[in-house]
Write a structure and sequence with these properties.
Keywords: Hydrolase, Signal. By secondary structure, this protein is mostly beta strands. It contains 3 helices and 20 strands. It has a domain of 241 residues: 5 Propeller (Tachylectin-2, Chain A), CATH 2.115.10. Strands 19-1-2-3-20 form a 5-stranded antiparallel sheet, covered by helices on one side. It starts with a helix and ends with a strand.
Length: 347
């Protein structure tokens, strides 16, 4: 039978359905071919869990996509409290910041030589009543985070502080009033008071992490305004940039994530050519992953966290809550696995 336009039109939907069901969709870019050495050898995800919020747990990966639990899913430290955020200092030591609750006046900092054991390094109590241009700041310190700036030789610590209480009629005004503050330090023992606002523009931001790529500083943040038809970017992950650590920072670009995502965690791929940006769908529902070859975008979202192995392109253990992801050496990875033991993430 000779093909006709009618026959082709009849068979085309079935052909497309067959191809869709049997085609292998491409894996995320950034991986290193088998047998070649990765630029970024391993990764550590320091995080909380759904059942034990505000405590320290470890999950690790060799490819930045597939993550496995350490320490049989138990706490790494009974002392640490907070939203885990780790930075490596110029002397090779690691520092982690946290606080016991948002209403606590203190930010606690621990230090570690090997990521295995942590000891108290310092306590910082910001004077929130002295922040320039921010009268009425409430005694709230949310999710302190750390960045080391090689150019200036200083640490920057950021956190969010609101200036309005929530009400029964409008609980979201508390979150919309969050502003990102920062303080600088040479050693995370003494700090250059007073704290200051990081951004000039006026809308709610939380969970800000700072990263530098070439000559540009990027602030990756959560837009903390509630999403509406008139603020469609609310509760999404967005990026702003500056030529200087202290700004001014540009207005944030279009959202990288869907609405109701927070706690961005950024890592470079094993071949160091791609960026993997993770974020939590709260409260502890799942994790999303967006991918780009440039922090200016464009970004696309990978498929994962479905717990169907033939569909997932990345996988994290269930019930992980937010924290930070950092690159580590294979030697550090092996030490962590030897010390704590590893559990494969079974889907």
């Amino acid at each position: 039978m000779r093909p006709t336009v009618r026959n082709i039109a009849y068979l085309l939907p079935a052909l497309l359905l067959f191809l869709a069901g049997n085609a292998q969709q491409p894996d995320p870019p950034g991986q290193v071919p088998e047998g070649e050495k990765a630029v970024n050898e391993a990764y550590l995800f320091a995080h909380m869990t759904h059942e034990d919020y505000g405590r320290l747990y470890y999950t690790v990966s060799l490819d930045g996509l597939h993550w496995n639990t350490l320490n049989r899913g138990k706490r790494i430290s009974d002392e640490y409290r907070g939203h885990p955020d780790i930075v490596k200092g110029p002397d090779g030591r690691y520092f982690i910041a946290g606080n016991t609750s948002d209403s606590s006046p203190d930010i606690n900092i621990w230090v570690s030589d090997d990521l295995v054991s942590w000891k108290k390094h310092s306590v910082y109590t910001p004077d929130l009543k002295s922040v320039p241009g921010y009268p009425g700041a409430l005694q709230r310190i949310g999710a302190p985070k750390l960045f080391y700036d090689e150019d200036s030789g200083k640490f920057m610590m950021t956190w969010h502080t609101p200036h309005k209480e929530g009400t029964k009629e409008d609980p979201e005004r508390y979150w919309a009033s969050q502003r990102t503050l920062y303080v600088l330090s040479d050693d995370l023992v003494t700090f250059e008071d007073p704290p200051r606002k990081l951004f000039e523009w006026e809308f709610g931001t939380i969970d800000v992490i700072i990263r530098k790529v070439k000559d540009t500083y990027y602030a990756i943040l959560k837009d903390e305004t509630y999403p509406t038809l008139y603020w469609p970017t609310g509760k999404t992950i967005r990026i702003t940039r500056s030529g200087s650590l202290l700004g001014p920072y540009s207005l944030p670009q279009d959202p990288i994530s869907p609405n109701f995502r927070e706690a961005p965690a950024l890592i470079p791929s094993p071949d160091d050519k791609i960026w993997y940006l993770y974020y939590e769908q709260y409260p502890g529902v799942s994790y999303g992953l967006s991918i780009a070859d440039n922090l200016n975008g464009p970004w696309y979202q990978a498929s994962g966290y479905t717990f169907f192995s033939d569909w997932d392109k990345y996988a994290l253990p269930a019930k992980v809550r937010h924290g930070c992801m950092i690159t580590i050496s294979r030697k550090e990875y092996d030490l962590l696995v030897k010390k704590f033991g590893i559990e494969k993430n079974e889907k």
